[in-house]
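Reading a protein record of the kind used here takes only a little practice. The integers have meaning only within a learned vocabulary of local backbone shapes. With that in mind, consider the following protein and its fold in token form:
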Amino acid sequence: MMKKFLVAAMTSMLVLGVGIGSKVEASKGGDSVERITWEYAGELEAQKGFDKNKGTAGVLSGSYKDYLIVGGGANFPYETVLNGGAKQHYSDIYVYKKEKNKLTMVEHTNLNYEIGYGSSITTDKGIYYVGGSPNKEYADDITLLTVDKHKKLQVEKIGDLPFTFSDGIAVEKDGKLYIGLGKQNAKESNKLYEYDLKTLKTKELAPIPGESVRNQSVAQVLNGDLYVFSGGGSIAYTDGYKYNIKKNEWTKVSSVKVNGKEISLLGANSVKLNNNEMMVIGGFNKDVYDNAVKNLGSLKDDELLAFRTKYFTADPYEFNWNKDVLIYNAAKDSWRSVGKIPFDAPCGEGLVLMDKNIYSINGEIKPGVRTNAIYAGTIIFD
């Protein structure tokens, strides 16, 4: 029943004009995106062993040819965070294909292990998934996901990192992966590494400047350089840096700022639009996040219980997460908004660009609570 509903919902969405195509650049450069129109596009099937999918955050996501692949992630299926609920990771992977203007699920399968909060990289060769597993044996893996001619998911282990990895950044350029920040061997880090896909060797590079702890940043390769924005530790950051790959040097770039207001992208996700631009959706509110970390770490007894109760029972809108769809232009070193999403701001969502369509899949909509929704946006150019 769930599968039929999902396909029907997506079919309806596509009839309304939200189609997909092979992965290509959304535009060829410049400030060409005017706005995005959004449609509700259904939800994922229940994970194996569950009656309903309650939504996950920290998912694997990307595209390969005409296929959208998403899965893994984590949630709290049995009890709330307030009541001490345990986090559950998943091994479920969902494969969708575009056929005759319809997006259809062609496979729901399971990995041999659970995953979540690794880094996904969409390339022409497939989707690289780096780290991201509660199982230490797999938490240093680099894996390549593709789809064969029979529409079946293919999973190939490429190699191992010399450390376990989660909550960091990873991109690909010229056959090399640039992996860093987040948690390395379960310790928060600012270190960056190069992983050569041919030699399978790992080389340490210059660490990112600024804070020594930088979790859940957003990053893309633009104009041949690596750009990293925001993230957080005990506080949320709004700063940005450019890494010159050839020179192994970092320089500061514009902070995330729109209309004079700096915006945290901690926990957000991003896609590369073209050689100059990246798009970002989501992000924790800096003031709310900073205040929560401070109080959850310093209050005690009744005061802590009162704060936790108010915090974890608040509605999503009270957290004021970023709802602006933001675009960074590397050539201009500037940020702009192309409108707001018409749904709860997600963090840790899957974000997939296919032709002129952007898909926001699941994610956290307030601390400890996920959405099971998939939203499809059509990019409108000016």
Notes: Residues 2-381 form a domain with the Neuraminidase fold (CATH 2.120.10.80). Residues 1-24 have pLDDT under 50 and may be disordered. Helices lie at 2-15, 286-298, 301-312.
